[in-house]
């Protein structure tokens, strides 16, 4: 898809997707109805894909006690990006910058066997990170955002395959949304801000490189760009200003399992320490939405459009028939608008184009008499005279493109 120079901030305002207001606070997003619908569709698709592909859904709190972040290492290595503590009943709590400690504790609530592994926990985790006001930008850099966060807990002999599966899953997500141009990076150890031995880091970095090579991707090294607990694979997209933004990320972690004394019972009946992978496919829903807006120039495919179709009538004489078509489409779950204005048909069509509606359904005297409709698509602007049954077959085919699938790792 050709790039354009319209920013997601302009598109978001024009399409009524989101707003940010000083009364709420810097870097905090308000999702408006069209944006909330877009977000719902992204989340619905992704959640279905995760469940199909072996993930278990969990929910965790927005805050946690300070000792949780001390154990994880966040207060030693990540405190500058965390908000100040909140005192509750004489104890300190922090807004979560990440959800990994919570997923670890879910894992630890009950003894796990080698037969249970790998375990894959996923959630839409709302996290809060302090960013300097000068770097805040639209949806791409904010202070409160939601990750499609997941943690894979596996035996050491399973970890290489799990990293590869997570990478293939990331590539599937990007392909589903028509992203074909992205850049892979291997982010390595920052010796001044990391935990774990250099030997463990080197081994983990090697496994990440093997996964990227096996997936057929070229990559660059991001020296010192790893998380404090392990190296990572980052897949970066480029916005319309030429800036790269990390979206998908797969992060190796051999440290938190030891810090939290995680274990599973092996075939030998003894306790063994698992390994863990942190990963997000969209990255943050806010940033991914920004990339989508610019990539599609706001012209989302039918299945992803907040409004999928708009019904237009030539005159009020067709209103009753148009209402019956509208109600039938709504009953089938399609996201439909009905333009009841008194403007001429040409103006209604232009308004639908400006609003980037994928399908326009026109009803005049001829259509009413034949119990049919004229359909105009945004993509080719050609008009088709269709029966209602043919209309539903066409829409069902377009809708099915957004169906989640099981991912084979030999893709």
* CATH fold title of the largest domain: BirA Bifunctional Protein, domain 2
Number of domains: 2
Largest sheet: 8 strands, mixed
* CATH H-tier superfamily of the largest domain: Bira Bifunctional Protein, Domain 2
User: CATH class of the largest domain, anyone?
Assistant: Alpha Beta
How many beta-strand segments?
20
Task: Assign an overall shape.
Answer: elongated
Radius of gyration, in angstroms, nearest whole number: 24 Å
Euclidean distance between termini CA atoms:
23 Å
Q: What low-confidence regions span 5 or more consecutive residues with pLDDT below 50? A: none
Compute the average pLDDT: 95
Given helix and strand content, the structural type is: alpha+beta
Please tell me the CATH architecture of the largest domain by its name.
2-Layer Sandwich
Number of distinct helices: 13
Strand order of the largest sheet: 3-7-8-15-12-11-9-10
Share of β-strand residues: 25-35%
| Portion of residues within helices | 25-40%
Defining key terms:
alpha+beta, five-stranded mixed β-sheet, 25% strand, Rossmann fold, 411 residues
Verbal overview:
It is a single chain. The chain is elongated and about 75 Å long. It is an alpha+beta fold. A hairpin with a 5-residue loop joins strand 13 (264-265) and strand 14 (271-272). The strands form 5 sheets. The chain has an 8-stranded mixed beta sheet. Strands 17-16-18-19-20 form a 5-stranded mixed beta sheet, with helices on both faces. The protein has 13 helices and 20 strands. The protein folds into 2 domains: 8-296, Bira Bifunctional Protein, Domain 2 (BirA Bifunctional Protein, domain 2), CATH 3.30.930.10; 302-400, Rossmann fold (3-Layer(aba) Sandwich). Helix 1 crosses helix 9 and helix 6 crosses helix 7 (198-214). It has helices at residues 8-14, 33-52, 66-72, 74-77, 100-108, 159-176, 198-214, 256-259, 285-296, 319-331, 345-354, 365-370, 388-400, and strands at residues 18-19, 30-31, 56-57, 63-65, 86-88, 91-95, 119-128, 144-154, 183-187, 219-222, 232-238, 244-253, 264-265, 271-272, 275-284, 309-313, 336-339, 359-363, 372-377, 383-387. The mean pLDDT is 95.
């Amino acid at each position: 898809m050709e790039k354009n120079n319209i920013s997601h901030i302009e598109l978001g305002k024009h399409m009524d997707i989101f707003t940010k207001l000083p009364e709420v606070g810097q870097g905090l997003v308000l999702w408006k109805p069209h944006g909330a619908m877009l977000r719902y569709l992204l989340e619905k698709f992704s959640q279905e894909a995760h469940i199909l592909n072996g993930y278990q859904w969990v929910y965790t709190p927005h805050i946690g006690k300070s000792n949780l972040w001390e154990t994880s290492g966040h207060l030693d290595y990540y405190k500058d990006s965390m908000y100040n503590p909140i005192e509750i009943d004489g104890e300190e709590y922090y807004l979560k910058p990440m959800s990994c400690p919570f997923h670890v504790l879910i894992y630890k609530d009950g003894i796990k066997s080698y037969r249970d592994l790998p375990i894959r926990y996923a959630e839409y985790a709302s996290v809060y990170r302090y960013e300097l006001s000068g770097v805040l930008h639209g949806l791409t850099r904010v202070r409160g955002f939601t990750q499609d966060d997941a943690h894979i807990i596996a035996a050491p002999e399973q970890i290489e395959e799990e990293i590869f599966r997570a990478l293939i899953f990331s590539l599937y997500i990007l392909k589903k949304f028509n992203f074909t141009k992205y850049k892979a990076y291997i982010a390595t150890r920052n010796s001044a801000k990391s935990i774990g031995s250099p030997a463990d880091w080197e081994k983990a970095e090697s496994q990440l490189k093997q996964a990227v090579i096996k997936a057929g991707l070229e990559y660059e090294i991001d020296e010192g760009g790893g998380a404090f607990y392990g190296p990572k694979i980052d897949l970066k997209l480029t916005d319309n200003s030429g800036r790269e933004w990390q979206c998908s990320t797969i992060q190796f972690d051999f440290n938190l399992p030891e810090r939290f004394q995680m274990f599973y019972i092996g075939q030998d009946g003894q306790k063994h320490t698992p390994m863990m992978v942190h990963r997000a496919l969209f990255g943050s829903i806010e940033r991914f939405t920004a990339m989508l807006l610019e990539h599609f120039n706001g012209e989302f495919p039918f299945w992803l459009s907040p409004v999928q179709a708009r019904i237009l009538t030539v005159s009020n004489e067709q209103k009753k028939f148009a209402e019956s078509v509208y109600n039938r489409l709504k009953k089938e779950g399609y996201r439909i608008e009905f333009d009841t204005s008194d403007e001429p048909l040409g103006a209604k069509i232009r308004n639908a184009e400006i609003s980037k509606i994928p399908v326009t359904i026109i009803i005049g005297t001829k259509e009413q008499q034949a119990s049919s409709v004229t359909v105009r698509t945004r993509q080719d602007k050609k008009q088709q005279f269709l029966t209602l049954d043919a209309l539903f077959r066409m829409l069902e085919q377009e809708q099915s493109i957004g169906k989640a699938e099981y991912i084979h790792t030999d893709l």
